[in-house]
Known about the structure:
By secondary structure, the chain is of the alpha/beta class. It has 2 domains: 27-122 and 248-314, Bordetella uptake gene, domain 1 (D-Maltodextrin-Binding Protein, domain 2, 3-Layer(aba) Sandwich), CATH 3.40.190.150; 124-221, Periplasmic binding protein-like II (D-Maltodextrin-Binding Protein, domain 2, 3-Layer(aba) Sandwich), CATH 3.40.190. The protein has helices at residues 2-24, 41-57, 72-79, 94-101, 137-146, 161-173, 185-193, 204-212, 260-274, 277-285, 295-314, and strands spanning 30-34, 61-65, 87-92, 113-129, 152-155, 178-181, 199-203, 216-221, 247-255, 289-293. Helix 4 crosses helix 11.
Amino acid sequence: MTKTFSLLAAGLLLACAGASQAETWPARPVKIIVPYAPGGAVDVVTRKMAAKLQEQTGQSFIVDNRPGATGTIGVSTAARSAPDGYTLVANDTTFALLPHIFKKLPFDHDKDLEPVGAFVFAPMAVAVRAESPYKTLDEMLRAAKAEPNKLTYGTGGPGTMPHFASEALGIATGARFLHVPFKGAGEATQALLTATIDYQIASTPGVIGPVKGNRVRLLAISGDKRLPALPQVPTFAEAGVKDFSVVNFTGLWAPKGTPHEVIERLQKEIATAMATADMKAYAEGIAAEPGHWDAPTFARNLKERTAYWGKIAANSAFEKQ
């Protein structure tokens, strides 16, 4: 009886300890690893969310940039961290591309991280310079089909989201383009502005500046509706491309084994943040859509998108690194 009572008491103590951890989280600063350099879309959006989480919880959320190897350095660092809720990692749709970019990843893509929530959904856009002869997406696609591999597009390098998105556009339309890789998306945009390339596929926050400055014109955006910030730009479906639904998100992951109570609290805090007027205004101001996915929705969409990009990779000339 004494032994049974001791075991029961120990179990109750463990349960209370777990409940205490969930109730008090976050009791100290939370680190969010951004696996890219400062100033990029993931970094900027994550910093905005981190500030909001800090405001809501009263605890510091610190962004730690760990760039390199298409984000895998920072992601693997997070995957090896203690699953206590005090280390998270941010990323975007690129996470779903990783198994199709690398022959071997330094972490288990399916098992080592738990999706927490996604927020700020940015369409991908076909951008041409303001002086481009192509006024519509149809005009550009007809030119590409008439002379395969003559029209050039720029990206931040092979295996990046814009590269895969351009491959997806070619597969969906039967057009063939010539890929010109650069060291970063910013360089690709500069190449567009100087007429070094014909077009660029980029997330709307990445090109909204040149668009507002009348230096770049958008021919189409992904998503199922036009953006309030860009009401004149048609969706791909409206422009005649029915099978192109590529939207970039920013999201947070936690190491596998992070207490369920912590994941649940984070989901609620993200939902609360995205329901505020200032976060909605922020998202709309960078030509993105406000909103959020909870953990189950995030996990389901990641699985679907990983499979989708696998099909694109299989039907393109891309070779794994």
